[in-house]
Design a protein that fits this description.
The protein has 232 residues and is α+β, with helices and mostly antiparallel strands. 42% of the residues lie in helices and 23% in strands. A hairpin with a 2-residue loop joins strand 10 and strand 11.
Length: 232
């Protein structure tokens, strides 16, 4: 699909993204003129570790995970990206192979853009270059912060924060729908599906009831207490 036929909603997603948010409307329109929209089914690969990084991607809809395979056969989840996030921009802009693989966690729609075209935009406008570098620097710090959270918090705290991020009310009780499978949530939180199930069971005494993809939260304030400190 030609990216010039993107809906206005898709264009709003791009305008709010870290990468395109640094560009003017004219620059963004120029990129869209040569962009391509790709649709992937769950578990399809967008790109593989070691492939030449000639394209970068912006997620229009859905979620993707970035994972790296080690020489010892290990498979490590690096991060989960969702609507509005950009993927592989650093590798593509410097002309290096993709350092990890990207796989769709849900049905996925992405805008594919040649890195060379983004470089042309950056090099032709020093203000855009500065804003883009600042945006990428911010994204790097966010990833570093996520790594620090994985090292300094318990799985129970991370799950509580994850659930609170899905809540749309400030207090009282509510029911939420998990955005993707529990195995994917476990990977995002840095644990195993089995351990995630145990933590869900532990949260029952704090008013969190697991109903498959639906989660009932009896008291949002109690769940905030779990997120703020280890539970007894």
């Amino acid at each position: 699909m030609d990216a010039t036929f993107l809906s206005e909603q898709d264009r709003d997603v791009l305008r709010q993204s870290v990468l395109c948010g640094a560009m003017s409307e004219e620059e963004l329109s120029g990129l869209l003129a040569s962009g391509v929209v790709k649709t992937l089914d769950r578990l399809d690969y967008l790109f593989l570790q070691g492939d030449p990084a000639v394209d970068l991607y912006l997620i229009l809809e859905g979620s993707a995970q970035i994972a790296r395979d080690g020489k010892d056969g290990s498979h490590t989840l690096i991060a989960v990206f969702e609507k509005g996030d950009s993927l592989a921009e650093v590798a593509a802009l410097v002309g290096k192979p993709y350092p990890a693989s990207a796989q769709a966690m849900t049905k996925l729609r992405v805008l594919c853009i040649r890195a060379a075209l983004v470089l042309d935009v950056m090099q032709s406008n020093r203000n855009t270059l500065a804003r883009t570098l600042a945006a990428l620097h911010y994204k790097l710090h966010v990833l570093v912060d996520e790594v620090e959270v994985l090292k300094t918090t318990t799985i129970r705290e991370r799950l509580a924060v994850f659930l609170l991020d899905l809540v749309t009310v400030k207090e009282g009780s509510t029911e939420i729908t998990l955005p993707y499978s529990k195995s994917m949530i476990a990977a995002k939180l840095g644990t195993s599906p089995q351990q995630l199930s145990r933590i869900f069971n532990e949260l029952k005494k704090h008013g969190v009831i697991n109903k498959g993809q639906r989660i009932q939260i009896d008291d949002i304030a109690r769940l905030r207490d779990v997120a703020a400190r280890p539970c007894a």
